[in-house]
Amino acid sequence: xxxxxxxxxxxxxxxxxxxxxxxxxxxxxxxxxxxxxxxxxxxxxxxxxxxxxxxxxxxxxxxxxxxxxxxxxxxxxxxxxxxxxxxxxxxxxxxxxxxxxxxxxxxxxxxxxxxxxxxxxxxxxxxxxxxxxxxxxxxxxxxxxxxxxxxxxxxxxxxxxxxxxxxxxxxxxxxxxxxxxxxxxxxxxxxxxxxxxxxxxxxxxxxxxxxxxxxxxxxxxxxxxxxxxxxxxxxxxxxxxxxxxxxxxxxxxxxxxxxxxxxxxxxxxxxxxxxxxxxxxxxxxxxxxxxxxxxxxxxxxxxxxxxxxxxxxxxxxxxxxxxxxxxxxxxxxxxxxxxxxxxxxxxxxxxxxxxxxxxxxxxxxxxxxxxxxxxxxxxxxxxxxxxxxxxxxxxxxxxxxxxxxxxxxxxxxxxxxxxxxxxxxxxxxxxxxxxxxxxxxxxxxxxxxxxxxxxxxxxxxxxxxxxxxxxx
Length: 472
Prior knowledge:
- By secondary structure, this protein is mainly beta.
- The chain has helices spanning 2-15, 19-27, 146-150, 157-160, and strands at 37-45, 56-59, 65-67, 73-79, 82-89, 96-102, 107-109, 112-114, 141-144, 208-211, 214-215, 251-257, 272-277, 285-290, 294-306, 309-321, 330-344, 350-365, 376-394, 398-426, 438-452, 455-465, 468-471.
- The strands form four sheets. Strands 14, 15, 16, 17, 18, 19, 20, 21, 22 and 23 form a ten-stranded antiparallel beta sheet that branches.
- 28% of the residues are buried.
- Mean pLDDT is 76; it is low at 1-33, 126-132, 186-204, 220-224 and 229-238.
């Protein structure tokens, strides 16, 4: 069926532009006394006898063909005498091949019945459910479901977001910082930061990432790089959450909200990415991926514990070689999560989701004297997070949802670079007072360490029904 449909589509694309010139020549073929016979007839539906309009009638092995008119009739002139095969193709009908013997001259009438079975398929039922449709306003949100995620060979959330309209494709791997600026226009120069800038400079927090109902903190980006800008910090300053820290293989659903509905999560400027990880009874999978620079190993599995309880466990390890030929220059990620889901009530309309997760992200750029003398940096983040989310159905379509989260992150980063300043004041005095200073110039190594251990406590209570929503 696929091959016949493909051939017919190609046939129509090639012949329709010339139908206006071919059909008149067919109509006057008898007047021109073309050698051979005239084959004509009517093409009808084998089930109801109705004429089939626009069917292609082709004499195989020759250049003769015709399209049926509004009454199903066709006429092909100049058909060579002898055994021939008449092929009839029409969208929605099975391919039909009719053998016939063409006389030296005259008219041969050949009617054909075609069966309407080529495009018959089983009925498809389309349903919408709360987890499958976008919660944002129509036209401002798009959903990437599990089936689409499974088809992507993506090491992180950033590659999954490329399925969303307007997101440009990026090279594979984890060697570069990955952020997503929604509703931000890149500028070549003179941006918000004053000099050359990119779209991530337009908002210090970047696009909001909501993971399992909880906004991810980007406190590591609220740092300064010195009054003279001597140091470029190794983390995503002004760019939001680094998407490399979220593995794609453990995701269940991603919703991209570009419009005002993102205000539900506290955002009014840069949009929101709502991410749900896998939970419940999941068939166990073991996935390995290697592309020459990036190695990733993932295992995910879930089971039914009985009494309306389910548990899911996943592990993910990925590493990317950043500088070819230098094994120490690499980015590594390890994540694991234990999810537990329990349903309450006679109709199991109340659901409690609990998730305990741990992640380690490490990026190292050792000094390479032959390439960039004095330049080196590394970052290392540990994170432990506990999420609790309860949802209760209040009647037919009303609902109440409560979300709480407690997370702890140990963040450490270091960067150094070789700088050359023409002249700057120098003194060896360590206490308050006055001392003669000297202006010196030349190269020096500038070093910055940024360490922090933030705690994040988050809670949200909201209720809603069709057309209305209230949140705290």
